[in-house]
Amino acid sequence: MTTSNNDASKPRIKDAHISHRNGFMGRYIARELGHGDDYEPPAICPLTVISDPGEMTEEEAVKLIDDTKPKHVVVVSSTAVYGLSSGENIDETAPVRPADNASRHLASIEERVKERCKATGAICTILRPADVVGTGMEGFTGRLARDVNNGSYMHVKGNDAQRSIVHAIDVAKAVRAVAEKAGDCGEGLTGTEAAQGIEGVYNLTDRSGATIEQLADAIAYRLGNKRIFTTGLKAAKALALLGDITLGALPWSSKKLKARTTTLTFNSFAISKHTTWEPMSVTEYLKTHKYSEDDI
Asked: Shortest CA distance to 163 belongs to which of 87, 81, 254?
């Protein structure tokens, strides 16, 4: 696969404000929308993208909308707002029941932005990526990558648990897809259809059905063919218990073991009913993409 995240041929979506454009997702979105380091968004923008909502308060999100006066707001949230630790093919109709402070904050940002958009008449699109892979990734994928890199991750025999993932490149492409469909960049729909745009909530995954072991193997390859050992479930549970007893002094824990042996997958086909967005396989990308110094 030759998909790149530094395609200079992408037309710029002008007059867009991207919050935290130097943040984890902000960098990918800025590049996808054709915004170079010298881009200065105008004071009033038709499109406002809240790229890293975890880095701002609810009041800051509302103020951003009031200041930029957009016709369309895109929030890049997370499937974490569902508060689920297991499940299969979960779609956007699942209730929002965040289970920790970070996901509760994201859920609050979503609600405040929706309320403000309703009050101002702006289109509101909320994108909920599953676990994101990319430079600077955090959460489940970040912890997995760190453990693979330092050699503390081990496969567990018989583990076929799946975990929905998506690359940050494709999250950024989803932002472009909904922006183009709403006419934010002078393309896509026009007239009444453009005014309606694509409102609502959309999950984002790579739809590959990759297992957690396949993801770990792909990360290991990307990190220079790191060697991954395999252990039995009983031994893994013993290591996890020892990690619990030592209060985190060891890289294993019962919580981490459960997360890495439990299936959690989401359905992300709803967005493709309205756009041409089609994601790539994250594991294939990690194993086949020819990285350059311009990649992020």
From this structure: 87
CA dist 66 and 11 (Å) reads 27
What would the two tokens of residue 100 be?
């920790």
17-27 tens-digit pLDDT: 999 999 999 99
- pTM exceeding the 0.85 threshold for the entire prediction: yes
10 Å Cβ neighbour count for 230? 12
Q: Which residue has the tokens 């330092």?
A: 150
Place of tokens 């569902």: 82
The Cα 273–Cα 77 span in angstroms is 20
Tokens of 210: 């990759």
Are the beta carbons of 206 and 284 closer than 8 angstroms? Answer: no
Number of residues assigned to the chain: 296
How far apart are the C-alpha atoms of 147 and 285, rounded to whole Å? 20
Query: CA-CA distance, 71 to 60, in Å (whole number)?
Result: 18
Report the largest interatomic distance among the alpha carbons of the chain, rounded to a whole angstrom: 63
What is the number of alpha carbons within 13 Å of residue 267 lying toward its C-beta? 11
Instruction: Give CA torsion, residues 108, 279, 199, 31, to 10 deg.
Output: 80
